[in-house]
Specification:
The complex is a heterotrimer of chains A (283), B (349) and C (278).
Chain A (H helix, E strand, L loop, with lengths): L1 H36 L15 H7 L13 H31 L3 H16 L2 H14 L6 H26 L2 H9 L4 H12 L1 H17 L2 H6 L7 H10 L7 H35 L1
Chain B lengths: L1 H17 L6 E7 L5 H11 L2 E7 L2 H10 L4 E5 H9 L3 E2 L16 H7 L9 E6 L1 E6 L3 H10 L1 H6 L6 E4 L2 H11 L9 H13 L2 E4 L3 H6 L5 E5 H8 L9 E4 L3 E3 L1 E8 L5 H12 L1 H11 L6 H10 L15 E3 L6 H16 L2
Parallel strand pairs in B: 1-2, 1-3, 7-8, 7-9, 11-13
Antiparallel strand pairs in B: 3-12, 4-12, 5-12, 6-9, 6-10
Helix pairs in contact in B: 8-9, 8-15, 9-15, 13-14
Chain C lengths: L8 H22 L19 H4 L1 H33 L3 H12 L6 H12 L4 H6 L9 H26 L2 H9 L4 H12 L1 H16 L3 H6 L7 H11 L8 H26 L8
The chains are: A mainly alpha (283), B alpha/beta (349), C mainly alpha (278).
């Protein structure tokens, strides 16, 4: 008996130590970003005192000449958010429809479709980026905002599908059939019966899609033309040309970071409340 | 459901059309850190237009941009302009549209370097300079080493010091050729092989505009940089805080960057207005002060030296008694060879 | 619900256009002299194949494989115990910690790379504030640390999601049959988490092997990965005035696809429904 608990406790101590190291290594860069966002230094070579001007520069850019410099960070931010919002909406709608379709297939075909669906997830970004670049030039699309949008929808849909499918599997198929018997059309049956029951899956998928889009670098890099820069490709360019850099990008990142934390807390609260309610119902 | 969908479509369409403005646009492709953003903004405001600026790291990359895309203005080095004329990718400058040009004279010793070339009608000189060594002057022995050994300091001490090399095939190979005592335009196979060996054997860090920042942050002890890389940092830093210095070996290259208008430019007229805007004396001065390179026009250059205190002897890219070489494009095979040398050198570090 | 299978049809078309056709075209580009930006007649050739056997390409490939392997192994050695530890925690703590692991991923990846640059610089903000100085920029170890920090969560999540769902009855059964903790772990828990390990390995190995911004920034350009060569072939040196670089880049990309195909086969084998991928 002693031997067993020894193994157990070793595992526990090692696990604890490694978990702590994991958090340190993952949060260290976040800490640096936070510090840089309040550092009163344009070039960022060292600590030059506390300031909030990079945050105000995001809100009232006209007072800061560096905020109008090209390539423009504010344009990059608005382009990033616009693509992220649009691609999330489109990918969520399409991904949910496709997932409903995939779920309706026979087991064999469903697995085939899931494999197909996983291509963009497993494929390295660089290969996906090049593949899309090739399609766009075959279709003679000029690389622009729109090609980036298509690319983002492309790599977001699989995540929505994967988030929605497990929820669909748990759904009782008789409910949908019943709605048809009660006079719903196919589409309204989907809207009234299926969608409300898989809403959490759709929401999770949308959140994933948004995350993937807002942080994407490689695929945007290969599918964007001369005019379109998102925050990542903007950064990649200005890191090589430091005088175009502005620390306001750190501030932007901190703001996004805080918003995400709020969203996660909010979603968790809603889920907990729901679970509580259903728990109480069961009693 | 239908209502939600139609609402969504309306939102989508309106969002997608917001991005379109009616302002006419000027597409510029330029090197990074190479044009004062305040002046670009002033140009936009004055003419009510929008400037789209794309940044590149090398002449080669810029050439690929104007081949695959449409730009109205680019800033190329002299040797590439030569090649672009051969490829029919640039157009002649229309001097009738440049009102400020008449008051300015190109510095004679600069003009003599390219006055025989076919590039003259295609270019508006933008800046000129050399390559040299920027180093951390906290280490006195390093200063002595560089001043006594010149190019050899860069190539022979990469084990003791962190040394940065420019990630551009022409400049890296030119430095290696100069180190070996050859001409920067050498096409000789064994000379190029010696240059390759020098680059491969040394253990460099590679970068472009970030090299000077790395010297300032002491990640690097010394690095090959363009003259303006040093001066723009020098005039930006606090006087008491300057921990870096610049050394130009006796024999080095001299280059001339010029504004050119690509053949397929959509907005030729506006491109000329842009050039003219940067040739206004006040603007030219402000821009030269921003980029830190020597201006190409006598009037501007003199004011820079007398009123902006650019009196460092190294500010003149071609001082009396120095020996300077200018790049020529050479053959396509040589260009490919240079690319291969750079790749081999980077991969073996 | 079965009659809704028609909803999957457009997806097949979508995937054919955006995933299958470019793959086929990549093969054509790799084995011909077709100019991507100037489509016209072309002839098939094996000339681009020489790029693979080039000393520089092989070395870059070697670098990519070396760094990706080391990163993946370290991520596994750290990630598995962490996933195990987290899966044994109380539900509330577990949820909070997992959320805390996800949150940093919402920070821009390139900005996090920049932060690592600051950490590894001899005199930077990190030195000013913490008094610590690591002069590691450009060293292999710096690239590995940054890569582990970047991809570790992608190793932890899939393993965690498998361990979390593990049927506790199986573990109890093993113990009832006389297995000690050690045996239970290696005979029951570990084999059952194979699906998560495979997904985690793939999600760590492939991105680190194909990385190009991270080695470029942290390695100060002195460590070339295969991704850097592809980047330059498709983005910067497109026009060496004879334009074969895209074809060469396609050849290298095709070579990379061998790795993703292997990954697919493994995923299909271990996790048919792709449940560990998110």
């Amino acid at each position: 008996m002693k031997k067993q608990s020894l193994f157990h406790s070793i595992l526990k101590v090692v696990g604890l130590l490694l978990t702590i190291s994991t958090f340190i290594i993952i949060y260290l860069p976040i800490l640096i970003i936070l510090i840089m966002s309040v550092n009163d230094s344009t070039r960022g070579y060292g600590w030059e005192g506390f300031t909030l001007k990079w945050y105000t520069a995001l809100i009232v850019p006209s007072a800061y000449p560096e905020m109008t410099a090209l390539p423009n960070l504010l344009n990059a931010i608005s382009d990033t958010l616009l693509v992220a919002i649009l691609s999330t909406i489109i990918a969520t709608v399409l991904g949910t429809i496709f997932a409903i379709g995939i779920n309706a297939l026979s087991r064999k075909n469903r697995i085939r479709m899931v494999v197909l669906n996983n291509i963009p997830i497993v494929n390295p970004d660089i290969v996906t980026g090049i593949s899309l670049l090739i399609v766009f030039s075959l279709l003679s699309f000029t690389l622009s905002f729109y090609t980036v949008l298509i690319a983002h929808v492309f790599f977001s849909i699989p995540y929505v599908v994967l988030s929605v499918l497990p929820k669909l599997k748990k759904l009782d198929p008789n409910m949908y059939e019943a709605s048809l018997d009660l006079g719903c059309s196919r589409a309204s049956g989907v809207g009234k019966v299926i969608i409300p029951n898989i809403a959490t899956g759709i929401l999770a998928g949308a959140l994933l899609a948004f995350t993937m889009s807002i942080d994407d670098f490689v695929i945007t890099y290969f599918t964007s033309g001369d005019e379109y820069l998102n925050v990542s490709t903007w950064l990649y360019t200005v890191l090589k040309h430091p005088r175009h850099f502005t620390p306001a990008v750190y501030a932007y990142n901190v703001i996004i970071f805080l918003i995400t934390i709020i969203i996660i807390i909010f979603i968790n609260n809603v889920r907990e409340r729901k679970e509580k309610i259903s728990h109480e119902k069961n009693i | 459901m239908k209502k939600i969908f139609s609402l969504l479509i309306v939102v989508l369409i309106s969002v997608l059309t917001i991005g379109c403005t009616t302002k006419s646009k000027l597409y510029v492709v330029n090197w990074g850190d190479y044009m004062d953003p305040v002046l670009i903004k002033a140009f936009e405001d004055e003419y009510g237009v929008e400037v789209e600026l794309e940044l590149v790291d090398s002449n080669e990359a810029m050439a690929s941009r104007i081949q695959t895309g449409t730009y109205d203005l680019a800033v190329f080095s002299e040797y590439m302009v030569d090649k672009l004329i051969d490829q029919n990718l640039v157009q002649e400058i229309n001097y009738d549209l440049l009102t400020n040009e008449t008051g300015l004279t190109v510095i004679p010793k600069l003009y003599s370097l390219y006055s025989d070339s076919e590039i003259v009608p295609y270019i508006i000189p933008y800046a000129w300079g050399t390559i040299g060594i920027m180093y951390d002057n906290d280490k006195p022995e390093l200063k002595t080493l560089i001043e006594t050994q010149g190019w050899a300091a860069l190539f022979e001490h990469t084990d003791e010091y962190n040394v940065g090399m420019y990630d551009s095939s022409r400049d890296a190979v030119a430095a290696a050729l100069l180190y070996n005592g050859f001409n920067v335009n050498s096409e000789n196979i064994s000379e190029l092989a010696a240059a390759e060996a020098a680059l491969v054997n040394a253990n460099f860090r590679w970068g472009t505009d970030e090299l000077r920042g790395w010297v300032i942050e002491e990640t690097l002890d010394m690095a090959l940089v363009y003259s303006g890389d040093y001066f723009s940092e020098y005039y930006l830093a606090d006087a008491e805080n300057i921990t870096f210095d610049f050394y130009v070996p006796e024999t080095t290259n001299v280059w001339l960057d010029s504004m050119v208008i690509p053949k397929n430019a959509q907005n030729v007229d506006l491109a000329h207005k842009f050039i003219d805007f940067f040739m206004r004396e006040a603007n030219a001065l402000a821009n030269s002060d921003y980029i830190g390179y020597a201006p190409c026009y006598e009037e501007i250059y003199d004011t820079m030296v007398s009123e902006y205190e650019y009196d460092d002897p190294n500010f003149d890219p071609y001082p009396e008694g120095s020996y300077r070489q200018m790049y020529v494009y050479g053959t396509d095979e040589r260009s490919q060879r240079l690319t291969a040398i750079l790749l081999a050198a980077k991969i073996n570090d | 619900m079965k009659r809704l299978h028609g909803y999957a049809l457009p997806y097949i078309v979508w995937m054919i256009v955006l995933a299958l056709i470019p793959t086929l075209f990549l093969v054509v580009l790799a084995f011909s002299d077709l100019a991507l930006f100037n489509l016209g007649s072309f002839s098939l050739t094996l000339a681009n194949f020489s790029i693979i056997s080039l000393d520089t390409t092989l070395k870059a490939m070697g670098n990519s494989l070396k760094f990706a392997s080391i990163t993946t192994i370290i991520c596994f050695i750290i990630g598995y115990p962490v996933a195990l530890y987290l899966s044994n925690l109380k539900e509330k703590t577990r949820k909070i910690l997992i959320a805390l692991l996800i949150v940093p991923l919402w920070s821009n990846m390139l900005l996090r790379i920049t932060a690592w640059e600051k950490i590894f610089t001899p005199s930077s903000i990190f030195t000013d504030i913490f008094g610590l100085s690591f002069d590691l920029l450009g060293e292999d170890i710096a690239i590995i640390i940054a890569m582990v920090a970047m991809y570790l969560p992608f190793m932890i999540f899939p393993i965690f999601s498998v361990l979390e769902k593990l049927d506790t009855k199986l573990i109890e059964a093993a113990k009832d049959l006389g297995a000690n903790d050690f045996q239970t772990f290696f005979r029951v828990i570990f084999p059952l988490s194979a699906g998560g390990i495979v997904s985690g390995t793939i999600m760590t190995f492939l991105p680190s092997m194909t990385a190009f911004a991270l080695p470029q920034r942290i390695g100060l350009g002195s460590t070339t990965f295969i991704g850097n060569i592809i980047e330059s072939k498709f983005r910067t040196e497109i026009m060496d005035f004879n334009g074969i670089s895209i074809n060469q880049g396609s050849m290298i990309s095709l070579f990379l696809m061998l790795f993703s195909i292997t990954a697919f086969i493994l995923i299909v084998k271990f996790d048919k429904e792709g449940e560990t991928l998110i």
